[in-house]
Amino acid sequence: MAYITKAIHYPIIETDVIPYYDNAEKKLVLIYAAKYNIEADMMTKITTHNTNIKLTIDKARSDRETAQKSTTLKNQELTEGKEDLLWVFRKIVASDNFDEADAQDLGFRVEKEPVNLDTVKPVISEITCLPEKIIFDWVKWVLDGVIVDGSYDGDTWAYLDKDNKSPFEDFRKNKTADVPEVRYYRFRYIKDDAPVGLYTEVIRVIAEIY
Fold it and tell me: How far is CA 24 from each of CA 46, 51, 68, 85, rounded to the nearest angstrom?
């Protein structure tokens, strides 16, 4: 008699793992662990996994929602804070008794060193991973913008976009639905629409954009 070897099914969609694992753990405990001589220490691991999978999925969802709210509040505060402080500085500059030394003391007059267009490298100040996008905050300085390359293995690169105003936001969906994926990014400044300076170090991100 010929036997057909059947593959062992394991769900790839995160939300399907919880009922799958719960069903398996309960029935192993009640029936199949004894029938198939599954060791007690392994069953302890299975039971612990069943508990922790639920907890970690719930926490990850909560953390993503919290991160999204925190990022919105941060961006709002940074924008409003900048607008209000610049309003004060402009009022000071427009004053009849304005003193340039006061501007230096307050920090809004800074002598900038010339940028070396051969060695300048983009500064990524913050990376925020949200369920619908990945956000890269970058420092513009006196350059015109950045070009962004992407990779799925860190070796083969493809041009993603040009960005003239921080932040750069990547809205691409994951290649496989409901499966997190590793992505790599690198940034390079542009001046007069031409690349200048050096690429950033390779940035590795886990994307959960489903």
Answer: 9, 13, 34, 60
Claim to verify: residue 77 and residue 129 sit in the same structural domain: no
Report the pLDDT value the prediction gives residue 133, as an integer from 0 to 100: 93
Residue 145 CB contacts under 8 Å (≥ 6 apart), including other chains: 162, 163, 164, 165, 189, 190
23-37 per-position pLDDT tens digit: 999 999 999 999 999
For residue 82, what pLDDT is reported? Answer: 85
171, two tokens: 């809205």
Q: Where is 52: in which H helix or E strand?
A: helix 40-94
Q: What is the DSSP letter of 171?
A: -
Q: What distance in Å separates the CA atoms of residue 146 and residue 3, rounded to the nearest whole number?
A: 59
What pLDDT is stored for residue 1 in this prediction? Answer: 52
Asked, as a colleague might, if the bond just before 180 is cis with ω within 30 of 0, I would say no
Q: Which pLDDT score, from 0 to 100, does residue 2 have?
A: 54
Point out the residues of the chain with pLDDT beneath 50.
none
For residue 51, CA distances in Å to 40, 43, 58, 115 come to 17, 13, 11, 55
Total tally of structural domains belonging to the chain: 2
User: Angle 40-94/14-27 helices, nearest 10 degrees?
Assistant: 150
Does residue 105 sit in the same domain as residue 46?
yes
Q: Could you identify the residue written with the tokens 């036997």? A: 3
pTM (predicted TM-score): 0.55
Among 111, 141, 175, give the residue marking a domain's end.
111
Same domain, 23 and 90: yes
